[in-house]
Design goal:
The complex is a heterodimer. Chain A is mainly α. Helices cover 60% and strands 4% of the residues of chain A. Chain A contains 27 helices and 8 strands. In chain A, a hairpin with an 8-residue loop joins β2 and β3. In chain A, α3 packs across α5. The N and C termini of chain A lie far apart (73 Å). Chain B has 2 domains: 146 residues, no CATH class; 152 residues, no CATH class. The longest helix of chain B has 28 residues. The chains are: A mainly alpha, B mainly beta. The interface between A and B is large, with 46 and 57 residues.
Chain lengths: 601, 339
């Protein structure tokens, strides 16, 4: 029997090396995403918009399971009283579960940061292990980890997509899929399905979909290009075992999802082809970094301004990087015979670049290149016909696999350089310097420092008062426009009171529209856009009939408090709404620097 | 053996380098930023920065002293230029911006001046207020309690005050700023006790201006007391007035006015604000459960200044005793909600 002591002794070196690799990824993540004073309790990386929604997600998973004893996939804590199912929302249930022990003691900001760092470290370490499996060279593999973990795709989505930050399961799934193919050992099928589940529930169903496409690619490559059809029976069992375990464990979510799909209930979650085109990568995005780039950002902004295009934003961040391109060109030219063996990774990279371009080719924002508005259709169009393909909003997210492919190709290139350049081969320290230099160059090129941060963990005082009120009622936060509602949801994690509005990744727009048809909500919408809204519009939304309509509808929604958030409205607009509400409801129930609250009787 | 050694050297190197970077980063992070404000001259909606400067606490010679910060630049295109000011987070002082002056360096002459009070704003509010030391009287200030970044921007200037193009000229934008430890007062209401109003001998017995900074709790009514002595001879009696001067910063809710004698020991008069007359259409009746009167009067931040609540004129107290020649304290019960 192998004792723990023997086990540790046997794997001492591996444990030591892996610990150091993980440690360096932790440090690099902190340095690249956070800024002084590294206040993990009050600072999150990103622009804040979707980040607050994800903090609500973390809280909701905890609150629904531990306090309400309900499934987190159904809620009426947003869009009260009808609520909405969250099957097509970017809920991160595993992240919610992992952070349960920290949410109360260290807060939601810390919990969010924990998942961010976990995403980077697992992603980098997973890519390192995957590359090491193929290259047997830890230096080269380290570079693959750097490229995958700190890719513009990953840094871009860290602006606010907690689900997409959690890329950690992807390289592990790929690794175990290859191990399954190479050994036909069923334990790897089990591990692969575990990491498929991790990719889905710590990450996103996007990643499940992408890994599904990857698996098809993986099989087609073997069957069509390697002309391998004599698969080991155990391998086939293993392949069948992966979806079986996945469906068994995720059935509680996937079955209702399919039911909603079949019954047409999820129509609101479907994206039009135009949405998919808008969220596809632009060919130019692969060659130009985003406008947030540390070195090139200034020039990119000028290009954006002069050509009236957008190169920044999470969905456009698919820049490959010239260091990686130069490394690949050099390796391919110098070691073409050896690099030729790795056509799988080249094909993989190319295939996922094409898929990330979406249904039609887009260059500098244009999708038609002839006088007759002719576009160039791409294979991404076919994805709409796969299960879940119409819910897939952003084809550009396929780029996540591109960076895995690039990382592997770069690792092979570096491996051959280390093994074949005499001076490097002879001096054992030089490979280290080569990796340090290449890693530094790649990180510098991908870098978005100083990474945008949100510091506002502050929740207005009134939400603490709300928490102490026992009855069941809902709250209307105004103005109710778009991303701000995500922040209101974050505030509701303190009040634990339902909101009549909500900000979800897939929203039932009919419910949203119904809310925005209420005159008082419409009034703040107008005032939010233009505080000097015409007198006729103002009067029409505040006359006796509209007032009666407003309060009847709010009463039907069981709204007890209207909270006006001063920072999100022009001072003139706050004055007008306040004046109207004081006239109709009476003096504010509560007011402070941020909020003016009216109680509806 | 060599391979193993190389592995360990690699690990050691990575660990040492990364730890050094990490520790130095954290070490430098211990010193909080002293940067207070960022100024720049920009075109193309901030895409092209012609000149910029971050101003630190040390750059100011002293508190409460206006200082000019210059940015030299030249404009090669016909794009309109902006003079932008961004207050940075985590300041321990208030920031006051007076105005921006543009100079032509070649001719050494002033060619444009802009009051910061007239600039468009983005982010948390800069408050416009009056400062006698300012070149334009009106200034904008940002309190130290505001912990978010906030911009003043515009005016997208292509020509100088004489209409001559700014392109291809050597220019200098001078930003006039100061830091303060105490906010400049923002007056929101004027309270007064008058006698003989409408007569030639009208006299103000007492008055005061309410500074927004004095409002500690927006959820409670504040009592503002005015001591006054009624002259022995009056024609039109005593009246208590509330004049709106909120300048768009707050909503005033006036509950009642009570008059005391003998150091608050004896209540001799009380009136609810709803019983008073008003000038203009700004003062409106509403309810407030926190008020002492069944109904209260409020005036919104959107209403123009100078609207008055006045009357009635009294010469006897609730007991029918003459007030002439006596000394009283009038207590105005007002709730001020900042907007």
């Amino acid at each position: 029997m192998i004792s723990l002591k023997n086990l540790l002794a046997r794997y001492k070196d591996t444990v030591l090396i892996n610990t150091f690799v993980v440690w360096t990824f932790v440090i690099l993540t902190v340095l690249l995403l956070y800024s002084p004073p590294f206040d993990f309790l009050n600072q999150i990386p990103g622009d804040g918009g979707d980040g607050y929604q994800f903090m609500w997600d973390l809280w909701w998973v905890k609150y629904s399971t531990t306090e309400l004893g309900k499934s987190p996939y159904v809620t009426n804590y947003v869009f009260y009283p009808d609520g909405q199912s969250l099957f097509f929302h970017s809920l991160v249930p595993l992240a919610g579960v992992i952070t349960i022990p920290f949410q109360d003691s260290l807060g939601l900001f810390f919990s969010y940061n924990l998942i961010v760092i976990l995403g980077y470290v697992l992603g980098g370490f997973g890519a390192y292990l995957l590359a090491k499996y193929f290259t047997q060279n830890m230096y080269a593999s380290y570079l693959a980890g750097i490229i995958f973990a700190f890719s513009p795709y990953h840094l871009g989505h860290t602006l606010g997509h907690l689900n997409l930050i959690s890329v950690g399961g992807i390289p592990f799934y790929v690794l175990f899929l290859f191990k399954l193919r190479d050994t036909s050992n069923l334990k790897y099928a089990f591990f692969a399905s575990v990491f498929l589940l991790v990719s889905t529930f710590l990450g996103s169903f996007y990643y499940a979909f992408i890994l599904f496409v990857f698996t098809i690619f993986f099989l087609l490559y073997d069957i069509l290009l390697k002309r391998r059809i004599d698969f080991d029976r155990k391998f086939i069992y293993g392949l069948a075992l992966i979806p079986a375990i996945f469906l068994l464990v995720s059935g509680i979510v996937t079955v209702p999802m399919f039911y909603e799909s079949l019954s047409g209930k999820h129509a609101y979650a479907e994206m039009s082809i135009n949405d998919q085109i808008a969220n596809s990568a632009d060919l130019i995005n692969f060659l130009l970094p985003g406008s947030d780039n540390y070195f090139f950002g200034k020039h990119i902004k000028s290009i954006e301004y002069n050509f009236n295009i957008t190169l920044g934003g999470a969905e456009n961040m698919v820049y490959i990087g010239y260091t990686v391109v130069a490394l690949l060109l050099f390796s391919s030219y110098k070691y073409k015979n050896k690099m030729r063996k790795h056509v799988l990774w080249l094909l993989l990279t190319g295939t996922f670049i094409i898929l990330s371009l979406g249904p039609v080719l887009k260059i500098m924002g244009a999708t038609s290149f002839t006088q007759s508005d002719g576009g160039v259709p791409l294979p991404g169009f076919l994805l709409r016909y796969l299960p879940g393909g119409t819910v897939f909003q952003s084809p550009s997210r396929f780029a996540v696999i591109t960076y895995l492919g690039l990382g592997l190709l770069a690792a092979f290139g570096v491996k051959y350089i280390i093994e074949n350049v005499n001076i490097i081969r002879k001096h054992k320290v030089l490979p280290i310097f080569l990796i340090v230099v290449l890693s530094s160059l790649i990180i510098m090129e991908y870098n978005m420092s100083p990474y945008p941060s949100r510091y506002d963990s502050y929740v207005p005082q009134f939400y603490y008062q709300l928490r102490n009120m026992d009855d069941t009622f809902s709250v209307l936060d105004l103005p109710a426009h778009y991303q701000i509602v995500g922040w209101y949801m974050y505030c509701s994690t303190v009040s634990e009171k339902p909101l009549v509005d909500g900000y979800l990744s897939r929203v039932n727009l009919d419910a949203k529209q119904k809310l925005h048809d209420i005159p008082i909500v419409k009034l703040t919408d107008y005032l939010g856009e233009d505080a000097s809204t015409s007198t006729e519009v103002f009067l029409s939304l505040t006359d006796e009939k509209s007032t009666q309509d407003s309060f009847q509808k709010l009463s039907a929604l069981n709204v007890r408090f209207i909270i006006i958030h001063n920072p999100f409205l022009d001072k003139m607009a706050v004055g007008k709404v306040t004046e109207y509400l004081i006239k109709t409801v009476g003096a504010p129930f509560y007011a402070d620097y941020d909020t003016i609250v009216f109680k509806l009787v | 053996m060599t391979k193993k050694l190389s592995k360990h050297v690699f690990l050691l190197m990575v660990l040492i380098i990364s730890s050094l970077i990490f520790l130095s980063y954290v070490f430098f992070a211990k010193e909080p930023s002293r940067e207070l404000v960022y100024i720049d001259v920009a075109t193309k909606e901030g895409v092209q920065i012609l000149a910029a400067k971050k101003i630190c606490r040390e750059d100011f010679y002293d508190l409460n002293l206006y200082q000019e910060f210059n940015l030299t630049f030249s404009l090669s295109s016909q794009d309109g230029i902006e003079f932008r000011v961004k207050c940075l987070r985590d300041r321990d002082v208030n920031l006051v911006v007076d105005g921006i002056t543009l100079y032509d360096l070649k001719n050494d002459e002033q060619i444009f001046w802009e009051s910061a009070a007239d600039k468009p704003q983005k982010g948390a509010y800069w408050h416009v207020t009056v400062d006698r030391e300012a070149s334009g009287n009106r200034v904008v200030q940002m309190g130290s309690q505001v912990n978010t970044e906030s911009w003043l921007y515009g005016p997208y200037l292509c020509n100088d005050s004489r209409g001559e193009s700014l392109a291809n000229r050597k220019l200098c934008a001078s930003f006039r700023l100061k830091i303060t430890d105490v906010l400049l007062p923002i007056y929101v209401a004027e309270l007064s006790v008058l006698v003989n109003e409408g007569e030639e001998a009208a006299d103000c017995l007492a008055d005061t201006l309410i500074d927004l900074a004095t409002v500690k709790d927006e959820n409670a009514y504040n009592l503002f007391n005015l001591s006054f002595t009624v002259p022995p001879n009056v024609n039109q009696g005593v009246e208590f007035r509330v004049k709106n001067r909120n300048n768009g910063y707050c909503t005033l809710i006036v509950d009642d006015i009570t008059v005391y004698k003998n150091n608050f020991e004896e209540l001799v008069y009380r009136e609810c604000s709803t019983n008073k007359q008003v000038s203009g259409e700004g003062w409106i009746e509403t309810t407030d459960p926190e008020a002492l009167c069944p109904k209260v009067m409020f005036i919104s931040s959107t209403q123009r200044n100078e609207q008055l609540m006045y009357g009635p004129q009294i010469i006897t107290d609730v007991n029918g005793n003459s007030m002439l020649g006596e000394t009283y304290v009038a207590s105005f019960r007002i709730r001020i909600i900042k907007i």
